[in-house]
Amino acid sequence: MSPLNGSNITATATAPSRQRADLDARPIAPPPKLRRRPLLVLVSVAAVIAGALLAVWAYTASPTTHEVVAVRATIQRGGIIDRADLMLVRVTLDPALNPVDGSRIDALAGQHAALDLPAGGLVTDDAVTTAVVPAKGQSVVGISLPPALLPGEPLRAGDDVRVVATPGEQGEVSAGEQRFIPATVVGVHPNPESGQSVVSVQVPYAAAAELAARAATGKVALVLDSRER
């Protein structure tokens, strides 16, 4: 076997070192720089703004949002509707509701409430009527009564009542002599100065004169009958 050549050993040992030196000497390329395109940024911002405006327009122009009539102040059944008692509101309608359209608000003034209309509630066609009070063949009589001769339950328009003759200070009245006149409450008007309330009731035309005469004596009481219908 021939002896190893020293020069070959040296060349073999130094070859990897030269390769590493060559690699270290190579310039390192910097990472690529991201170039911003102003036009693309502007287009993106404009798209976002346009989307927001479209969403707002879609909400305000939604076909399910309508302007309807609502009650500003409570109106009792049978009461006359005043324009000041009404207001316009915009709501998303439920298919089960049928409120009066806002364009008809002025036409409701002067009509009568067919039902009790609480403040904040929506007005429907069934809740108003053009019926005149008193109706044909009927009369309205006002009865001034102290709290002791009124029911403890607050009276409401539309209540069925009986106006009963009382003996006052003259003595007792037997059952056979008891006299009453059926009526319907039209309105209640408290008088803080006298402490009494004037109850307006509707009765048949033929009974109006007798009721007025009895009410003038102050010897009547008012009885509230069932509200069940």
UniProtKB/TrEMBL annotation:
InterPro entries: SAF (IPR013974). The keyword Transmembrane helix applies. Residues 1-17 have a biased composition (Polar residues). Residues 1-29 are annotated as: Disordered. Keywords: Cell projection, Cilium, Flagellum, Membrane, Transmembrane, Transmembrane helix. Residues 67-127 form the SAF domain. The chain crosses the membrane at residues 39-59. The keyword Nucleotide-binding does not apply. This is Flagellar basal body P-ring biosynthesis protein FlgA. It comes from Intrasporangium chromatireducens Q5-1.
